[in-house]
Amino acid sequence: MRTELIEKTELDRVLELMCQILGLQETSEKVVVETIKKVGIKGFFNNVNDLEVTDLEKKSIMALKLVIETKEEEIANREGVDTDGNKASLYR
Question: Are 84 and 76 contacting, i.e. CB atoms less than 8 angstroms apart?
Answer without folding.
Answer: no
